[in-house]
Amino acid sequence: MRAYPHGGGTYIVTKDNLGIAPGSLAAGALLSDYVLTVAVSISAGVAAMTSAFPSLYPYRVELAVAAIVLLTVANLRGVRESATIFMLPTYAFIVSIGALILLGLVSLAGLGPQPHPIQTEVPPPSSPLTLFLILRAFASGSTALTGVEAIADGVPAFKEPQADNARTTLLAMGLILAFLFSGITFLSYHFRLVPNERETIVSQLARTLVDGSPFYYVVQAVTASILFLAANTAFADFPRLGYFLARDRFLPRQFRFQGDRLAFSTGILTLGALTILLVIARHASVAALIPLYAVGVFTAFTLSQTSMVVHWWRSAQGELRRVPWHSLVINAIGAVVTGIVTVVVIVTKFTHGAWIVILLIPALIGMMLAIHRHYVSVAEQLRISSEEARHRLRLLPRRSVAIVPIASLNRASLTALAYARVIADDVTAVHVATEPETGQTLQQRWREAGLTIPLVIVDSPYRELLGPLVAVIEKLHREKGGPLITVVIPEFVPVHWWERLLHTQTAWRLRRALAQIPDLAITMVPYHLRD
């Protein structure tokens, strides 16, 4: 936060300090992280609801999909989270869970209301307590740290001094997290609560301490609300990351554009669609999603911490006395610890679904690098010097040629022919006769109308239209010569959108076919029909 007071983010920090390839790895990890953030948060929020109301459990996937659709639509409409919207559920969650923990600690001392322990049989140990098991538990518990990077990304949102206020907020969040997480873990162990798919640990703890009271439903409500807000945060971060990647030519340019409500619509729609597919595939199960979640998160953490080590070393310009050793050591420890978590998660969770993300991230990197190569190639091929521009303009032909493909002699084709006569000195009409009589009829009407424009008729005994039409246009192109010939395509536009389905869209298909031919300019001349 001190080094990047304008908001760094893992992608920017990694790209600046480690290069494009590690930056692409960070971007791939973050993209998967944001998708899984929404999936995990929404699924956990739905789990809080179904724990309070078990009758909703069979509909958990439908509830999760509905919540994602609602968040997608809200963000597309440009909803901006105010401080109050975030503040009230956050404070309510901290106070409610804090009160629940204090109530549990008081009950352990024999004071206050007596708890109502849930009678759940604890399963026998499946393996001895080994270092590997401790590391696995540590890696699983570390998932609670996900989301802390949001403060580093949003430093500019703080009041001055921004970096100091952001650092203070992160410290406070760490202390709150330590208290809530440790308290829930300690009480869950004491009351012998066992995780299960149908009820969350928080719900079991609340039922143990305040079963049957309104406070139980308050705890579940604030838990669900804070989780839905966590999902909404990804709807702000994913499109913003998509913008940065598109700006650096690693994602399609559509991710750069904002809609009329100043929202990155492409990023929002992409995140919503991917999350819905993931929630449906994993049946909105938090247990099934967490192994996927942790890989991307801690890969990003490891890269950002390593990048900061490089940043501090470079900032000293190789002079040991100028190196901020306390910052470098802290980031180095962070890189080692999060790296260990990443490795442990990959090893222990591989068969539980982590392999999906391990394959997905390299695929994302390959896609982004391919997109980057394409944009670089396009830019190089389109780049032109001032001297070349002047030279090419001097070579432009003064005589222009136009070709007009027509199906029959009608208002649309006559409008296109009239336009071609305006822009070109040499105009040729082309007709593909799929039936012998259509060519003869058109020639007769052409003579009756007294048209002097040359008419070329191509017979197509197999009733193929596009192939012969493209072939004759290419032939005329070679015969006419010149670097550029204009193909003027007549097109009639129906009044209603559904009426387009009643027509073959030949003009649109012809335009797509001709776009593959070099040195052809394609002009569409629409004729609008009346109701």
**Measured on Cα atoms, how large is the radius of gyration?**
33 Å
Residue windows where pLDDT falls under 50 for at least 5 positions: none
Q: How does the major sheet shape up?
A: 5 strands, parallel
Measured between the Cα atoms of the first and last residue, the distance is 62 Å
Which bin fits the share of residues in helices?
55-70%
- Widest sheet: strand ordering: 3-2-1-4-5
Shape: elongated
Mean pLDDT: 83
Number of E-type strands: 5
The secondary-structure element order is HHHHHHHHHHHHHHEHEHEHEHE
What is the helix tally? 18
Structural class, please?
Answer: alpha/beta
Beta-strand residue fraction? 5-15%
Oligomeric state, counting identical vs distinct chains: single chain
Give a structural overview.
- This protein has 531 residues and is an alpha/beta fold.
- Helix content is 63%, strand content 7%.
- It contains 18 helices and 5 strands.
- The protein has a 5-stranded parallel sheet, sandwiched between helices.
- α2 (20-52) packs across α3 (60-76).
- The longest helix has 34 residues, at 214-247.
- The radius of gyration is 33 Å and the shape is elongated.
- The two termini are 62 Å apart.
- The model has no long low-confidence stretch (mean pLDDT 83).
